[in-house]
Amino acid sequence: MNSITIDQARQIIMGSLTFARAQKMQPLAVLVLDAGGHAIAFEREDGASNLRFQIADGKSYGALGMGIGSRALFERAQQQPFFVEAVNGAFGGRLIPVPGGVLVRDSDSNLIGAVGISGDNSDNDEAAAVAGIKAADLEPDTG
Predict the structure, then answer these.
(1) Which of 18, 33, 122, 123 ranks highest by number of CB atoms within 10 Å?
(2) Contact 100, 125 (CB under 8 A)
């Protein structure tokens, strides 16, 4: 199984935070998971609240587990709320179906991990994740 490297994870975090500071976003927490759903790197900016890790984890872990970005999970939750609620139960309550969880693909479209960001509004969290993934020369997948 291909998976994201620690160096790539660090590049994603730095790219995400650089983008966020340029956009004057609220303080963020950025979590990078490998292809197996394990945390490989995390950083929380000064001023980000204490539950940001758990929220970033719920966005990225849910996206990885379902194979679709958390924006797509959000849309699915609106169409099929009972299904997403059941999936959340299967995930032990760990799923957070709002934008900010983005799948990471390599240049061959292999799924190699996921990024979860929390701290600003969900659309901005997702934009920072996409920017960070691109900064690491990888492919973001929000769908």
Answers:
(1) 33
(2) yes
Query: How far is the C-alpha of 40 from the C-alpha of 126, rounded, in Å?
Result: 19
Q: Residue 63 phi/psi, 5° resolution?
A: -60, -45
Cβ–Cβ under 8 Å, residues 25 and 18: no
* 86-107 per-position pLDDT tens digit: 998 998 888 999 999 999 999 9
Give the other-Cβ count within 10 Å of 26's Cβ. 15
Beta bridge partners of 115: 32, 102
Distance CA 135, CA 98 (A): 23
* Count of C-beta atoms within a 10 Å radius of residue 48: 20
Q: pTM surpassing 0.90? A: yes
Q: What is the pLDDT of residues 14-49, one digit of tens each?
A: 999 999 999 999 999 999 999 999 999 999 999 999
